[in-house]
Automatic annotation (TrEMBL), chain A:
This is ABC transporter ATP-binding protein. GO terms for molecular function: ATP binding; ATP hydrolysis activity; branched-chain amino acid transmembrane transporter activity. Residues 11-244 form the ABC transporter domain. The lineage of its organism: Bacteria, Pseudomonadati, Pseudomonadota, Alphaproteobacteria, Rhodospirillales. SUPFAM superfamilies: P-loop containing nucleoside triphosphate hydrolases (SSF52540). One of its GO terms (biological process) is L-amino acid transport. InterPro entries: AAA+_ATPase, ABC_transporter-like_ATP-bd, BCAA_Transport_ATP-bd_LivF, P-loop_NTPase. Keywords: Amino-acid transport, ATP-binding, Nucleotide-binding, Transport. The keyword Magnesium does not apply. Belongs to the ABC transporter superfamily. CDD domains: ABC_TM1139_LivF_branched (cd03224).
From TrEMBL, chain B:
The chain crosses the membrane at residues 6-28, 60-79, 91-110, 130-159, 188-208, 220-241, 253-277. Its main location: membrane. PANTHER family: ABC TRANSPORTER PERMEASE PROTEIN, BRANCHED-CHAIN AMINO ACID TRANSPORT SYSTEM PERMEASE PROTEIN LIVH. InterPro entries: ABC_transp_permease, BCAA_transport_permease. This is Branched-chain amino acid ABC transporter permease. It is a multi-pass membrane protein. GO terms for molecular function: transmembrane transporter activity.
Length: 253, 291
């Protein structure tokens, strides 16, 4: 692969095979996520983008291959272990507890830390301070939040335990352009603090524009990995999203 | 007027029992999609177990402890581990049918293993009546109401005011996300089964002194609790509470003012009306499912 040199990647997948039942989605997926950067995964529908996240986070069993996080083998570990290791996962869609208050929704982000976390109230207050709207609605049911506010809640909840890596799947779906910009801003802030971000985005153009690296996934395999501007400028990427197959093109080239 | 007041108090007492059973019913539905058709038998059985323990010679206080422990172990932990878990992967309906089989099994076991006759069960409250708003009402009814409501308030406080309780709620509302946040989902589900068993146990000790301990007691209670849960809104604790009181009151008032022969039919009429008019239940929320 023509990956840019990254001496100590935060996350490495090597030859991961996974799927649902008899269906194999990931056919030996391999890639490395550079530390302290934002990497955006793009690819056509069914390429296995969300499946990669589920496999990394232990929600789906890898039949073959390995996942290495921060130098440790974490293949097929349950979510709780991965949270403790420093990964957080924000899945696609709505992921809140609608009938719990906003504050209690956020509080649940610290479950994995157990009783050991002594500064829990302070962390929750800090999270609420970061987003005035969450502070304002702290004691209301989370179902009263708008879609964008719910996404903010999910991200804030994921950040409570100071993760080293954020896996975030399609954060922009259903959000207004302003909310998308705000959400991206949070991710950039985290990146600047040294946190690594691996993001799936349908909205490839604007996501790559704010990313450091781009990764193109197709048919469960890594087709391209490069600096985000290079991916963005590559004519094959446009074709890929217009229905062409990257494999054929690169073979022809 | 006196009679009316007595009926109201009796209705609230019966309703509190139904509410205990209905809340447990709702809890296990929420966390594990288990429709427990053996819920009535769960309320019948603890009293029988206590009497069985007393029958083999244990002093009454010890019989209570042994019977309670055996019940929680078998029908809190065991029920979840050996019936719900293996059946769950086959779907909601096979699991529901398995609980029906369990209800028949418990009933027949109680009948053959203990007694086919109704047995006296010791009451913790003396018989008699107290004056309430000028009417003489049963002290036992008041005691049943107070104990059941205290248990429900205690449960409510646990669920809303403790972190474990809120984690349990989160598991019920969205198990997938709970797992992603590292919630020990299986342990939380087990907790709801233990709570369900404890509520059934309380209901059993409250109602058995009144109706006597008999293997067939579960039939009425199970049906009433099921109707109460649906009328109140299947996915709400406060719905099950309201539904329980409503059915208890209607049950008692119908027996007195309509016809005691048709008393069992009236809650069913209420059920049909609620399903037609407000299918999500009086306090329920509409559930959306993506297909």
């Amino acid at each position: 692969m023509t990956a840019p040199a990254s001496a100590h990647p935060i996350l490495t997948l090597s030859n991961v095979v996974a799927g649902y039942g008899k269906m194999t989605i990931l056919n030996g997926t391999s890639f490395s996520v550079p530390r302290g950067s934002i990497t955006t995964v793009i690819g056509p529908n069914g390429a296995g983008k969300s499946t990669v996240f589920k496999t990394i986070f232990g929600l789906l069993n890898a039949r073959e291959g390995s996942v290495t996080f921060d130098g440790r083998d974490v293949t097929n570990r349950p979510p709780r272990d991965l949270l403790e290791a420093g990964i957080c996962y924000v899945p696609q869609g709505r992921n809140i507890f609608p009938e719990l208050s906003v504050r209690h929704n956020i509080e649940l982000g610290t479950v994995a830390a157990g009783r050991g976390l002594t500064d829990l109230p302070a962390r929750i207050e800090a999270a609420l301070d970061r987003f005035p709207i969450l502070r304002k609605k702290a004691d209301q049911q989370a179902s009263t939040l708008s879609g964008g506010q719910q996404k903010q809640l999910e991200i804030v909840r994921g950040l409570l335990l100071d993760p080293k890596l954020i896996l975030i799947d399609e954060p922009s779906i259903g959000l207004s352009p302003m909310m998308v910009a705000e959400t991206f801003q949070i991710l950039l802030e985290q990146r600047d603090k040294g946190v690594s971000v691996l993001m799936i985005e349908q909205n490839a153009r604007s996501a790559l524009a704010m990313s450091d690296y781009g990764l193109v996934l197709e048919l469960g395999q890594t087709r391209m990995f490069d600096d985000a501007p290079a991916i963005l400028a590559d004519p094959r990427v446009g074709q890929l999203f217009l229905g062409g197959s990257l494999a054929e093109k690169s073979e022809a080239a | 007027m006196d009679q009316f007041l007595q009926l109201i108090v009796a209705g609230l007492a019966t309703g509190a029992i139904y509410a205990l059973a209905a809340i447990g019913f709702t809890l296990v539905w929420q966390t594990s999609q288990t429709i427990n058709f053996a819920q009535g038998e769960f309320v019948m059985l603890p009293a029988i177990l206590v009497l069985t323990a007393a029958h083999v010679g244990l002093p009454m206080w010890l019989a209570f402890i042994v019977g309670s422990a055996a019940f929680i172990l078998l029908f809190g932990f065991g029920f979840k581990r050996f019936l719900v878990e293996p059946m769950q992967r086959h779907g909601v309906l096979p699991l529901a049918i398995a609980t029906m089989a369990l209800s028949v099994l418990i009933k027949e076991a109680a009948k053959n293993g203990f007694s086919a006759e109704a047995q006296h069960f010791p009451s913790l409250v003396p018989d008699g009546s107290v004056s309430f708003l000028g009417a003489a009402v049963s002290a036992r009814d008041i005691a049943i109401f107070v104990v059941a409501v205290a248990a429900i308030l205690g449960l409510q406080a646990f669920i809303t005011r403790t972190r474990t309780g809120r984690t349990m709620q989160a598991t019920a509302q969205n198990p997938t996300v709970a797992r992603i946040l590292g919630v020990p989902v299986e342990r939380m589900i087990l907790l709801t089964f233990l709570i369900n068993a404890a509520l059934a146990l309380i209901a059993s000790y409250l109602i058995s002194p009144v109706y006597l301990a008999k293997f067939s007691n579960g039939e009425t209670i199970g049906l009433a609790a099921f109707i109460a849960a649906i009328v109140g809104g299947f996915n709400q604790i406060r719905g099950a509470l309201a539904g329980g009181f409503l059915i208890g009151l209607i049950d008692n008032l119908a027996a007195a003012y309509v016809s005691s022969a048709y008393r069992a039919a009236v809650p069913l009429v209420v059920l049909v009306v609620v399903i037609l008019v407000k299918p999500e239940g009086l306090l329920g929320r509409k559930e959306e499912r993506t297909v």
